[in-house]
Amino acid sequence: MADGEGDPGVFTATALPGDPRLLPTVTSAFLGTRVFRDILHATGVYSGAAGDTHRADVPSPLGLRMAAPGAHSPAESFTLDTWTGTFSHTIQSPGYTATHQLYAHHSLVHLMAFSITIRRLDGSTHPVTVQLRSLFVPQSQDLDLTRGPDFQGAHYIYGQTLVPEVEGGPRPTVHMLWTPIPESLTLGGEERERRWEFLTAVAGSEEEARRSYSAGLALAAAGSLHRSHVRAWAALRRGCSVQLDGPLALRQALQGCLYYLLSAVPPRDSPGVPFHGISPGGLSNGTRDEDYWGHVFWDQDTWMFPNILLLYPEAARAILQYRIRTLEGARRNAQEQGYEGAKFPWESAATGLEVCPEEIYGAQEIHVTGDVLMAFEQYYCTTQDLKLFQEDGGWELVEAVAQYWCSRMVWSEEEQLYHIRGVMPPDEYHSQVDNSAYTNAVARRSLNFAADMARDLLLPVPEEWEDRARKIKVPFDEERKYHPEYDGYSPGEPVKQADVVLLGFPLMHPMSAEVRRNDLEMYEPVTDPAGPAMTWSMFAVGWLELKELQRAWSQLEKCFSNITEPFKVWVENSDGSGAVNFLTGMGGFLQVILFGFTGFRITRSSLLFDPAFPEGITNLKISSVSYLGNKLEVTITREEIRMEVTETSWDPPASPLEAVLESGQRFPLWEGMA
């Protein structure tokens, strides 16, 4: 390993962070909790109306802490192993060790579990007792819970959320079974080692909770419960493996980001479990007044999605299906504001209706609608999955977004261009502006994609889509050769976060290298250094494009002030404020590696690549890039690029690939050939 020894995917400490928000999370697609916390969350289970909608707190039996009675300051260690998806706490006392392991089962997504193992280290025969300190009470401020009959030795509670998101709407039901937890556990005098397993199953029906609990019990009885989780999780990590040679801090950040982001996506074998999107702080966070209450933003579609798409397109499809399921709510949002089509909410929960507590964002930060559609476009270009659009509701969403943008534009007689007025750009320091460069550029991209998609589906293309895409204004200063953020922007005005720089990537808005450089030069010094974590990653990608490697590295380095020790939990802002376990920042960071270092760009006709490594990085290996039904192993060094097709799909058949160099030279890529 270059630049520092140690496993970059195992984070160990002898003390916990003073701020409990910075404890690591254990999460599956359906359940999540922060370690040592007395609540957990289940996906899609929100309580509260409209702007008060938040993740419902489910009481958690998992938040206990071991203690060694009578031991004076025993040696303790705490470890997050990202390779096995397991958190462990170990107490080392004279004569024995006690280990507490906690995990969210990756394939049994309704199951979380922990074990306590006591192992004798000497020849003594006296009993060894470990205390289990728990704050668990089977009550919730968000759920009307009732005690039911025990099942296979487990206690049982069930109930509905107290307040629906929409008046008269459904109130999700939670059913929970858990192994009763004693106040202490004792290793008998004749025993050398013993392990106790404790299961918690949470589901939307009693039947599913029982099925998951029974399956967990059977695996535990066979001694393979944790092993079955590790096997499923390791398969995901192998399939989404990204490794590089470089500074240890960079490699640790990479593996930490992959752990937290991959924890949030559904496993390959759970098609029956609806996916409810990814919020900035993930499923483990999002109670009332915390981490944006578990709502889904553009963070999912713009910052997290591209990484998931490149490594794991099946999970990317599940994210898009969440947006399709909430389309009717998006239609209502547009209608309530007097527009046609569908306007996706700035903050989304279960219905797709706007649930942002502050009206200004829901009314003005409309670029999110284009961000959603850009994810659909990237997915289509990468997979050519026509079924999503022909049979599964994708086309209806594309069409509705195009209709919204057309109705949101007004014609300027003076400029002979279409305007979008009264918006808040990604830079939230400005509101009620006209012609946000980013908003208008993403609207243009939406309309162009809708027209292309209609042609691919052999549908008529409305003339106004193409006309408005051609004639929408994207502000540009001909004299200074840069994009003003909006009409009337003055150079030097402070900016909250990445905004205009997003035109270059991910929007790939047409511009010369000179203009790309000018945009970076203009906005880098005026972007708030205390702004959100994902910002610097997009400046890094921009400088990598221009082969300004030192400038790219200096921007990427800024991200490290948002990564907390010892468990690599990100905070939204470098002062510790905002969301924690900030998956948005992690998504931006991963894009620097997956799209910046590689130069990957997803277009309608190809996957472009143009690598650039900052100093200190010598090798990058991505085990499984997904493209048009093929899996590619990509290895990039300072001397060469090596691509090998490791797998091709047969249903539908994968498209044959070839590598095309700038010289025009072509190399066919067949399975097993590099």
UniProtKB/TrEMBL annotation:
The keyword Metal-binding does not apply. Keywords: Glycosidase, Hydrolase. The keyword Transferase does not apply. The gene is Pgghg. It comes from Acrocephalus arundinaceus (Great reed-warbler). Residues 601-647 form the Glycoside hydrolase family 65 C-terminal domain. This is Protein-glucosylgalactosylhydroxylysine glucosidase. GO terms for biological process: carbohydrate metabolic process. GO terms for molecular function: protein-glucosylgalactosylhydroxylysine glucosidase activity. One of its GO terms (cellular component) is cytosol. It comes from the Eukaryota. Catalyzes the hydrolysis of glucose from the disaccharide unit linked to hydroxylysine residues of collagen and collagen-like proteins. Residues 285-490 form the Glycoside hydrolase family 65 central catalytic domain. Belongs to the glycosyl hydrolase 65 family. It is an enzyme of class 3 (hydrolase). It catalyses: (5R)-5-O-[alpha-D-glucosyl-(1->2)-beta-D-galactosyl]-5-hydroxy-L-lysyl-[collagen] + H2O = (5R)-5-O-(beta-D-galactosyl)-5-hydroxy-L-lysyl-[collagen] + D-glucose. Its EC number is 3.2.1.107.
